């Protein structure tokens, strides 16, 4: 844990042991069972379990202690682990992210919460010039095994500075992995994988999938979650619904909307495949290409801004692949405007059920 | 409105700022005479005790050697063997005095100018120079010498030092994290924010500010209207302003601050008042923005000259010492020069290394694609690296 105890590879004996033990101690993707949790509780459970097993794991951020995280990602952890491991910070995103980096260099495994992803503007230097580059800049000698957990997304009238998705912005920059769970099962498994990862991982949860009583409820934000620890592998997409006519490639809250549309259109004989990306970096391009090759039609549904982002990257992936080059392509994204505050206007730009349905109908000519 | 402002122009004030402040810690005056500060005696017991001659000779040797390394590197840059070099000329006492106060298990986060500190940490000199030749983004393994890769973004490392210090605190160890930065960095939000956090958590961290008076072309008086040490007071951090050209004052102040941190007393701030005798880096020309008289004033306060005078006054500057130090300097300069001119060039495919610690399939595909691209040129007899490095072969 202290710098003196590390070997030349930068790993402590405990780290080496953990790395060796990880595959067997984390059964990959078990049956979800029957116990149901909301996404917030699934995240709390993943962090709590890792904190129990590993004294190097700690949580830091604004209102993560007694408040429990303003979107309940850390509820209950202060009572279980105390203020030395669940650390409320002074109000400086730059400072606590920079300190998370320093602590990770020292041998800790911080889970740092950036309250809203929109606040990245005040702390991006620490994120992309330090957290994401120290491993490279140190010639591979120094790892930064840190989780930067942050809330994303709109739909509840929180305005242009509290409603963005922005995963494309992080994914554009090398050195960090980016995961975006859409449901409780993935939320727990991806958090467990993120904490275990020796790379910095940006963990982006949509407020609308947390299952919070004060948010618009979504039926899929409560789901079956195994009690034991497990990993959802970073970089692996999941076919959330199999289909043959058209593929919706999507992530986060938009998975839920896409599944709703798919269920509705199934009654008309339109078979929609829904691919939940789960990770943006690495992006599971094989899964995208495989589904595109099967259906021949791809619609990207993305709550991030339309241009220069994930949807364009997926289009490029299809063009670069001999198997999927001929697939029809369209996208349902947020137009390149700030997220409006007025509810009617906000829902005019979000990827809603109606917009997704229209895109599917256009794609299949129905 | 501007005309009513009685504040002098910052550049006019720069010469007014001097060291007559009673709080200014000096143990060797510019003539090499020891200044009595009995309250600090406990931190210099080794210097004042029986083995003192050896300790002083060691500090002297370190300062002379790092000046020689620095000048050799400057020369290598002028000869086109290094891409860039940030000289530390004039700051030897600040770096050796603090660097020699550290314990092996302390951890340093520095800027790019602390090559004297790296020397104290035992760095392989060619690992420093590999970076400045432009062959690698990193030199040494930080865990081998407990000193992070030098930070290029001004002030950003101060936050890492506080985070590291909190890790030390959590481990229950009594080591200390050090943040080295300059006067310009104190205007960065990161530095202020790191002091907020260090004070809040009473983290075992030492903020070591080398006030060398210039941030490229901007004088320190543009950064602050009070001393930099006083700033730390606003955060509730114990602070001291020392003569940064006085190796004994720096050594004593650093030892005191480190001891405070080891005893659980939290952060400290040292402002070492020194002067950047050379350019910011070899890429700039300081005669465009600063006065030659200022340089002369500071030359009279030279840290090595001062220690020489002190050694002389005590009969310790023997011929043997001079010869030994000169021989060591020559030897080290030779190592540096030879290391630089025989340094292997990097391979093109190295760019893909270490972006991630764990596999990233997409990056692996980009790497494969690039390897195939390079392979196209192999039948022309050029190596892959030779092709992309633009005709060096």
Automatic annotation (TrEMBL), chain A:
- Identify the EC number(s): 1.2.4.-
Per UniProt, which keywords does this protein have? Answer: Oxidoreductase, Thiamine pyrophosphate
| Domain Transketolase-like pyrimidine-binding intervals | 37-212
- State where composition is biased (Polar residues): 1-14
Q: What is this protein called?
A: Alpha-ketoacid dehydrogenase subunit beta
Q: Which GO terms describe its molecular function?
A: oxidoreductase activity
Q: Which organism is it from?
A: Arthrobacter horti
Q: What class of enzyme is it?
A: oxidoreductase
Instruction: Tell me which cofactor or cofactors this protein depends on.
Output: thiamine diphosphate
Q: Where is this region: Disordered?
A: 1-34
Give the domain of life. Answer: Bacteria
Against InterPro entries, the record matches this protein to: THDP-binding, Transketo_C/PFOR_II, Transketolase-like_Pyr-bd, Transketolase_C
